[in-house]
Amino acid sequence: MGKFQFLLLDAGPIIKLFEMGIWEAFIEKCDVTISQTVANEAKYASQDYEDICIDLEPYKEQKHIKVVDLEPSEVKTFYEKFNLQYKAIIHPGEKEILAFLINSSEDWKLCAADGAVFRVLGFSRRADQGISLEEILEETGLSQSELEWQYTKKFRDKYTKMGQIDSIQG
Amino acid sequence: MDIGRRLNEARVAIGYTLEKVAQESGIGTSSLSDFENSKREPKFSQLSRLAEIYQKSIEFFLTDEPITENVMLWRDEPNTQEEMKEKETEFRQLCEQYHKLEVCTGEQKKAKLPEPDVTKPEEFDYLQAESFARKVQGEFFLGDVPIASLKQILEESYYIKIFYLDFSGSAISTMSPEFGPAILLNRRNKQWRRSYDLAHELFHILTWKIFRLQNADYCIVNENEEKLADAFASRLLMPQEPIERRIRSNIDEQGHITLDQLDDIAREFDVSLLALIYRIASIFRLSKEDTVKYCDAAERYRKFLKPRASYRPEKLPERYCDLALRALREGKLSLVQFAKYMGISYKKAQEYLTEDEGFTDGKISISVA
User: Is A62 within 8 Å of chain B by CB?
Assistant: First the structure.
């Protein structure tokens, strides 16, 4: 089985992979790219967990993952495409990674556990570029026990559809 | 997009030195200085970190919109300038977040607030304050005991944003062109003190056009305006007729009322005993000497009383929390944002993301046709 290419990760799935103890196995099977802001957010969010500590710096240095750090103007261009309602909904890490995805010509897949991210993808007519953690784990043969709602395909579909409806209704 | 100027503005607003920011952000002082002087631009991740420290949204640094100035009126400022700036920044951020929640859930509503009958500051006197309090009582349908419903009406019907934080001052009011009217109250104060502060700050909000927009020193509240706000608060919280009725139903044959009975009335109206005595003095036209005598007696009497219970309010308004949860479940607010807005951990925030049988799709609704 080849490596899963062009995969962008949001903070939620990163934390979940560490929680499940399969982060190392996951990056073996996937070419992972994250944004620097997401890396910072994952590190910060993991402070609430007793048993995990997420520091992605060593993985970046050893080139096991790629980390993109955008210029503010690149994010601004992306951000200006949205109306006021959509501008309010996503946090800086997601803004950066979505700006990267939308500015790139490659066929990236973005794995998130956040309704707002899938809603933005649906709204931006990039529904097929979203992917749930459940789908990737199945594809890479890393599936374990049942995942929580926000990591499922059903979750992704629900919020992507909401964004698509917004896009049609304007 | 002038990121440098905005970075400087945000740092000055919160009262931090470059050294303090360097320590918190891990970005060197020379880089921070270069960013502020527009010699070079920070990376987006650095900008995000700085936005976090300055308690500003990332949009503040990315937009080309002019920076809006929000005048914050203090009632009893905190002990230090540092605390004052930090509390103003925290309050402003909470208001901005509240506004964003209203925008993303489509619940951005405005209601016309009552206006005084006069339009110029010099026309406002104690009689005006009294009649305006009466007008507000009527328009807000506050009933006999206004404090019982005042806060809820201000929040739910007039969309005034009311937050509670811990600090050493008393209260803030503001009227922002961006997020509208808002009040900050001190969680540490006693309940009746907060009630009074709420009514006092409401006066500033309702008279903003008169005292702020027509005044070159619009950031400063003069002594006369403060006295008018106090008079308004007193009359709003203790309307003449219900107070008179309570007093008359308690007086003995000689026309006297005990401090015990007065304390019961003060508790019912959620004001201090002293505030009630001043109000009675105004209603029954007591002499200044008698008023001082009764107040002295009340001060002595207070020492023999069991302290009144005072509840500690939640920091965030209920409507704010409801909108945040709704925004999260409708995929209109990311989980990290939700955690930040609610002041909870990311781990705790995840618990709110349960499969909801389609409540948020509108599939489950109640027909009233």
Answer: no
